[in-house]
Write a structure and sequence with these properties.
- Four copies of one chain form a homotetramer.
- Chain A has twelve helices and 19 strands.
- With 432 residues, chain A is an alpha+beta fold.
- In chain A, a hairpin with a 3-residue loop joins strand 1 and strand 2 (68-75).
- The radius of gyration of chain A is 23 Å and the shape is elongated.
- The two termini of chain A are 34 Å apart.
- At the A-B interface, strand 10, strand 11, helix 7, strand 12 and strand 13 of A face strand 10, strand 11, helix 7, strand 12 and strand 13 of B.
- Strand 12 (251-260) of chain C pairs antiparallel with strand 12 of chain D.
Chain lengths: 432, 432, 432, 432
């Protein structure tokens, strides 16, 4: 699949898009250079609200569930379609070397000063939805119904969708027929990938505090060394996936952060780990969670820890499920927008997680979520795309959350806008 | 051994000390409540200089090797004796619950905001040396010669003695006959411990940076996980002492700090460890250092690391060696000051490290270093003191560098002053 | 699915089977009680040959590829159908407690005396194929063509099919239209499971010798301890699946055997491990094999091994692939034989391995391989069979190769015979 | 120290020894070529008894505590002196390449066929004691008293001394004034090493059985893998010495044997480990034993083991303690026999273990045990002997229990005889 094919395809409402692309690119670079941590997306939300208002037609509500922004574009009788983009960045130190790379820092909720980067592409999501929003306004005469543009905070922490829903979302805004969302990813530009049923994994995150007994580095016999305890724990946790999960069962146990001690010659009192667990089947999930808890407890006992470890939830994402019929409709529309061969059906769920599904669940309406490619197609030379799901990406392609992750602005922005418009077009009423 | 015995013993120059003890205790509590990181000891140095000046007689030089303070008390012809105290605190969060516990924080050289605590008792050292200094002034008619009171910064980082020496110490101050120093420790109050020959261990500290390849926590197959690499390294390093060092050889390998990652679902790019290695024999030291380097390299290879680990020295302490004859003289004097049974000869070196020995080495004069007890004797009920060296301390006694470490001000201050005066008295000339 | 449904279904050639079941059960118990190691199946082969001869009609060839037996039943013009059963047992100490449990022992090729058990159900395979062979003879008037009954040795070691083929199989026996094979497994009796495409995994086995330097257990510093080296290797190998294989990629790395040392106080010179690796995709297989080699090498380096480890292949099984069209035909026939709901389509390959596929590959004809259940349906109460593939079996159900594994003779024998006859019947010509 | 010095020294009773050395060497080579496992020393015991009888004067008792042999040489009134040699070999495959290397095999008590080697030098001990016995007979006119020559079985398993004592040793033989014993070791020939107080370590041996749940290697999720459990245990056990034993405390934890599984693709039901633990201080010993038990239990829990591990004692050796006064006397005599510089005082106990001390303990008399060198002095070129204890041996010198261990017959046999005679001479009465 190459991007040329997109020029052959026809999306609705895309007329005049070309002229807006330079502006969207500038917007994208600005957002990329100014990422904000989850629940701190005030600058981004301000830009979103201002842009929607400037487009005209949108009823804009700010501060929904914290920093969320909802635009409602009423355009006559017809279906209501929800389009969602997430806005938050990540505490990652950007290493892309791009001219518009972020040098931002922020204070996280633990009070630490951390770097911030749009390492997951939410800047692209915001840009594409603002671009699509403008086209919906510009082509208002071509469709009927109501568009809901939802700019959600705090997707990374699993809080944003929940917070917006808890803030009266269902009562305050029109009830949609369908919820549509997209995510940029390490696929070739021009490609969209999705599947019916489970499309993204469940995610369970924990903070584990291991308690030892500190002392001087030269007298370990007077201490219970939490660094050794943590190391033994991390290695033992590898056996959950290698020994307790079947080859055909999907699960990942990642220790994303491990912190203990300050000085080389002081054995600290404790160690802190942050764990993330992925699964796509509830019984596998339960087994993995039980195994993790069992191992955490036993490794502390092996060390003779003076106190049981503390395990605190850092959030849970459900499995993201695409409704079968709605997916069929939407995939057809994406094929129309991107080209017949451009939409790849995944053989199994992607392993990332999302809180997008909470909207459809809470509103009782179908959801469809897809990924679209942001990586140079050349990087995939000789790669069998159907095999990527089985074999993984070529090692040199940076993935989401990497300090090197950055989608190509061109043609990704254009394709993201076309995808949203294509998908929305399949659901909105056509004006006669 | 109990503290009662000290009343029976006789130190020189201690007349009138009782009246000063409340003031010394207030000074100690003030120093304890205001610890400063290595090379940042400006408040402490200011207090030291002001107190010496207020005592009269001392020529006070500030800013020696940064924040070092040197007092010279010339008192006629006679031997020159150097008495040394170190001044710096540690980045430890105090947990003693004492009324004068530290709540101080400071910015370390990596720019991090850290807690600070006098977790190693240097506040006690400063207090005792200032107390002894006052007694030397008060009893000036009883001795002849020159006293050098050296208040050294940055012992914890192994920089202070070196910096003071590099700042012209040998040229700027009188050359001593002997260098004397003491350290408070987790022994019963009333006891001093030392030995001829190696009395404290060599120490080698390193920062190790392990390089992986970051990515999303759900796709470890696209990454090289530095957290797992670090965990495997920490566990493998345990085998250096357990398998490559003989039962009768002394060595410790401690990973005092391990830091990697920020978020649970982002696999970071690298991990950082801080190691400290103790040894008392050069060939064992070399074998251990070689083994550590070998294992660091191999564990990175086992992970398929994209880049070799970086190993940077964080400082080296030599073995602290007590000169045989000078130790005999000084131990005799300590017995006189503390009681005949109060001085315990160590069967082997203590495992901590010191840069005190650099003064004697650089000046070409003998050194004597001893430890004195600061813990409640009751805590040692039923403990065979001679066996402590072999069997270690009772587990409930906090050791230096612990967040719970705090010597009893009474009678430790008095005993520390008496020890210094006793030892110095053995070397200074007596006035006829 | 329960076994009752089988009474409703109709297999061809099964008339009169009931009368033979007691005899087949006695045969099964006898085979179970007398298992033989791979390439030592002389008793079993003798029984097979004698029984085929006794049935009449079979041309029996013994000693094909060692202990293999091939029966050819020519029954007029028509298709040739190959039915294969494997005959070897395993070096497992039986723990079923059955009246006919094995107490057999044998000398393996390393010269060790080992227990032997039919822990993989090959006794069931032999029994069912002999039972089906008798029915084919008895119902000779109902079909046309040629039946090939292949009793293969040494499936467990991956040598048997290769040896039979190397022994001129293609030239010596009629060329079949299709190769059919079955395996009993821990599914409920009455159920068959299979899929089109990859149905069983590739398997790569290795012996790894790690070299240390032996010595007295009290002086590890004079040795390089291969036990610690092996332990570190086993733990590190867990990270291959946990970190280098994606959640949706199938791979297993098992260390099935680890041997080092004889006495507690002698550190041995070396350790030996036996590894088995499963995968169903070639690029995943290559990555895993490379990672295993990398880790073996690096862990030896971490230990300072005096010599590089030795890695020797112990055999390779290819992926077992079911031909699409042939599978459709055969599954239809199995549904006819066992009941419409009795045949479950697997969502992904089973993780075991087989050398059955070598026949079809070498002969250039399609293959179909299925598993049939041998476990009490009650054990699966409340278990969603469709979910077994994702979630694994209930923990209390013994699986193949377990010391506790034993299919229920009733009704498993009957169902295995019916399955073979049903599948064969779909390919053989019908007599008019 | 070189062997020349021995020619200058004068031992008692050595006249005529030179003529016997060729015979002793032949005896040594014969014993070396025919090692026997513990409690199976029938050939060796037979040779010993025959030789003693041939020397004349010895009352010989065989079968003391199994295969033990005791010779009593009564030579008038005077002190009784016990000289002890141990006789058993080890299950080690000899790799010395010597012309008289062992190719013996035997059946151990688990029924396994194992190689046997005199890897600990007990053949040397037997040879030297027989040589000394002959000299005592030959020089009967030069001394008065009674010599007890004790040839003990099963030292390696810690059973021999216990069994001989349990067989009425105290009642059946004269009570000695002193028990003397010696051990050949990897020191230069010509050197003897010993110390007052603890001279060899305590030793505690255990068999640990870890219970998992077996199954097919391709479905680890249906099993509890005991190989991974064992690996995690071995690595965790390293932390006992590295973290729970102080730098100046002596302890060793060795896993000398680890066995699990038979085939690469069968996950076994259990793993067996054999552990040996050394210590020289009772409180360190207790801490280490408790830590080992704690870790064994916790690692089984971390794996979710279906059953608690089984820990069985394989024997215990006490600390071998040399009586202070008796050591002074004996060291003086050894200096006389070997040369003034030839006897090195150890700074701390050697880390091996012995059951020799049980004789003195049970009989209530002092014991003295020393080691004598059997290695080529050239191998120690440039090695500071005083430092060997601290730094360990040069890596290329094989140590006891190594497949390469073999003392030089010349001059080790002569020196071993001289040492025994020298030591005994200090205790026996001199004839007037």
């Amino acid at each position: 699949m190459t991007t040329e094919s997109t020029t052959e395809s026809s999306s609705p409402f895309t007329g005049g898009l070309d002229a807006h692309l330079p502006g969207l690119r500038a917007l994208y670079e600005d957002l990329h250079a100014h990422p904000e941590l989850s629940l701190q997306e005030t600058r981004t939300a301000g830009i979103v609200a201002a842009r929607l208002r400037a487009q005209g037609g949108w009823e804009v509500t700010e501060g929904v569930g914290g920093t969320g922004v909802v635009g409602v574009l009423r355009n006559g009788d017809g279906p209501v379609v929800l389009l969602r983009a997430d806005m938050d960045g990540l505490p990652v130190l950007e290493a892309t070397g791009l001219p518009y790379a972020s040098v931002a820092r922020a204070t996280d909720r633990d009070g630490n000063d951390v770097p911030v980067m749009h390492a997951c592409g939410h800047d692209m999501h915001v840009t594409c939805l603002l671009g699509a929003a403008a086209q919906l306004v510009a082509h208002r005469d071509a469709w009927r119904g109501t568009a809901l543009a939802v700019f959600q905070p705090a997707e990374e922490t699993g809080e944003g969708a929940r917070d917006m829903l808890a803030d009266g979302f269902a009562e305050r805004f029109p009830r949609p027929e369908v919820c549509l969302g997209q995510h940029v990813g390490p696929f070739p530009t021009g490609i969209a990938v999705t599947r019916s049923g489970a499309v993204m994994a469940a995610s369970d995150s924990f903070r584990v505090r291991l308690f030892g007994r500190g002392g001087h580095g030269s007298t370990p016999e007077s201490t219970v060394d939490p660094v050794v305890m943590a190391a033994a724990l991390v290695l033992r946790l590898q056996t959950v996936v290698s020994r307790e999960v079947g080859a055909s069962q999907a699960a990942v146990v990642t220790v994303g952060a491990l912190h203990a001690g300050t000085k080389e010659n002081i054995i600290p009192d404790e160690a802190e780990l942050k764990l993330n667990i992925r699964s796509v089947d509830e019984s596998v999930r339960e087994r993995v969670l039980a195994a993790v808890r069992r191992i955490v407890k036993a490794e502390a006992e092996a060390s003779g820890a003076p106190k049981e470890p503390e395990i605190t939830s850092l959030g849970t994402f459900p499995v993201t499920v695409n409704s079968a019929e709605a997916t069929e409709v939407t995939v057809g529309a994406l094929r129309g927008a991107l080209g017949e061969q451009a939409v790849v059906t995944l053989p199994h769920p992607l392993n990332g997680s999302e809180d997008f599904g909470l909207f459809g669940d809470a509103l009782g309406v179908p959801s469809v979520f897809w990924h679209f490619g942001g990586a140079a197609p050349e990087a995939f030379a000789g790669v069998d795309l159907d095999a990527v799901a089985t074999r993984g990406l070529p090692a040199e392609i940076p993935v989401n959350h990497s300090p090197l992750y950055a989608p190509l602005p061109e043609p990704t922005i254009e394709l993201g806008v076309r995808s949203l418009l294509g998908a929305a077009g399949a659901w909105l009423g056509r004006a006669e």
